[in-house]
Amino acid sequence: MTISESGSPQDVEHSAPKPKPGPARPGPGSMRPGPGSMRPGPGPAAPTTAPAVSAVPSSDPHRFGRVDPDGTVWLITASGERTIGSWQAGDTEAAYEHFGRRFDDLHTEVMLLEQRLASGSGDARKIRSAASALAESLPTAHVLGDVDSLATRLQAIVEHADSATQEEKARREEARAEQTARKEALAAEAEELASTSVQWKTAGDRMRAILDEWKTITGLDRKTDDALWKRYSAARETFNRRRGSHFAELDRERVGVKQAKESLCVRAEELCDSTDWGATSATFRDLLAEWKAAGRAAKDIDDTLWHRFKAAQDKFFSARNAATAERDAELHANAEAKEALLAEAEKLDTSDMDAARAALRVIGDKWDAIGKVPRERSPDLERRLRVVEKKIRDTPTGGVDPEAKARADQFRVRAEQFERQAEKAAAAGRTKDADQARASAEQWHQWADAAADALTKKR
Question: Torsion-angle region of residue 371: left (phi > 0), alpha (psi -120 to 50) or beta?
Fold first, then answer.
């Protein structure tokens, strides 16, 4: 079967269907149809208005065209008739089917464009371009079908694509503005960190996080993107310079700290064997204050130096604590010895005053020879000894001057009053007042002893 179409080469089919009776040819008085003309024919009359848009292609090409007995195929549109080909096989129904299928293919293309535009899955600009190309091809399309309807639909696609293109452009501009604002905010944050932050670890982590986020932001115009990148890059370089300078200065400071702490270690090691407990303890306290004020070296060096310093300090204070413990044990032993002497003194028989006084003098000598006792026990022990001494002195021996004895007793009472003041002051932590009260008590005791000696001599 051979088909000849206007403006296209002939198509040859190897098997042609049997010819069927075609429509009756027009009578002698009818006008010969031609392109752009309207005439009645055996086919349906040309529609005066475009049929309604349908998602389903027409199944009857007879409504929109006709085939002359000589094989000329006509397309009927609202603007008139035009030839679309020549059918020479003699089977007019085959011609209708052939050119109808071509219309169906064209209709399918239009429908796909509509669907892509409606779903938003395609580029509106490309859809518009495809629709325009199809619309331009319709006046020469070799098809049988509702071409006017397709033209209307393609025009609608073009219009809607224009609208969609504008909307897409607006969305792109809005998205570009949003992305630009994000990068501007990141650049500003980076500049703030670069110029003010001294939290180097936290700021460094944030700088890296900004870069990671920066890489995810796209859609900016090249010029703006380059300008913002230069801002971020400059901020990062500024931050790195400041951080590098800080740590370089810190390294220099750490060298000085290391030297200072090494010197403190040497001084501590020179003192660790000292037995001048009070003065050396004070010196170690001063060394520790200097250590804290010196600052920090690198961690491993600082830890090593601290262990060295502390070893010297611990050696001294361990020795001091051991000596203090030994001294405390000695003082407690002295206190027990004086307790024993007091027990002996409190049992003296006053019926023989000469023997009692002699025994008390021996006890006093032993008392003085024993030495110091714990500070908190000294006042009580001294008070008890004074009571024994007073008892011995106050025991009547006959021929005593009452006024002299009363004066001696007053001295003794006064001394005891100062002793009680000293005890209270010591208990309250007022060391200076306690020392003054003890000194006053000692003075009154001396006067009382002198008065008592005078009474003894008068006997």
Answer: left
Whole-number pLDDT of residue 12: 32
Q: How do residues 265-309 score in pLDDT, each as one tens digit?
A: 999 988 889 888 889 999 989 989 999 888 888 888 889 989 989
Q: Is it the case that residue 186 has pLDDT exceeding 90? A: yes
Lowest-confidence segment of 13-17, 183-187, 198-202, 351-355 by average pLDDT: 13-17
What is the C-alpha to C-alpha distance for residues 434 and 26, in angstroms, rounded to an integer? Answer: 150
Q: Residue 378: in which H helix or E strand, if any?
A: helix 378-394
Kindly report the number of other CB atoms within 10 A of residue 162's CB atom: 13
Query: Residue 296 has what DSSP assignment?
Result: -
The residues that bridge with 83 in the sheet, in sequence order, are 74
What SS3 string covers 113-172? Answer: HHHHHHHCCCCHHHHHHHHHHHHHHHHHCCCCCCHHHHHHHHHHHHHHHHHHHHHHHHHH
The residue extents of the domains of the chain are 2-168, 173-251, 254-316, 346-458
> Which residue, 27, 28, 2, 30, is CA-closest to 14?
2
State yes or no: pLDDT of 58 exceeds 70: no
Q: What's the sign of the alpha-carbon dihedral 272, 273, 276, 278? A: positive
Inter-CA distances, 83 with 34, 42, 89, Å: 7, 15, 17
CB burial readout 191-226, b (16+ within 10 A) else e: bebbeebeeeeebbebbeebeeebeebeebeeeebe
Q: For residues 157 and 113, is the Cβ–Cβ distance under 8 A?
A: yes
For residue 396, what pLDDT is reported?
A: 64
Burial pattern 61-77, b for ≥16 Cβ within 10 A else e, equals bbbbbbbbeebbbbbbb
Give the side-chain half-sphere CA count within 13 A for 330. Answer: 9
Listed residue (142, 127, 17) closest to 72, CA to CA:
142
DSSP state of 36: T
Distance separating alpha carbons of residues 258 and 262, to the nearest angstrom = 6
pLDDT category, 447, cuts 50, 70, 90? confident
Q: Using alpha carbons, list the distances in angstroms from residue 407 to 23, 440, 449, 451.
A: 170, 17, 11, 7
Which tens digits make up the pLDDT trace of 126-161?
999 999 999 999 999 999 999 999 999 999 999 998
Q: Is the pLDDT of residue 41 over 50?
A: no
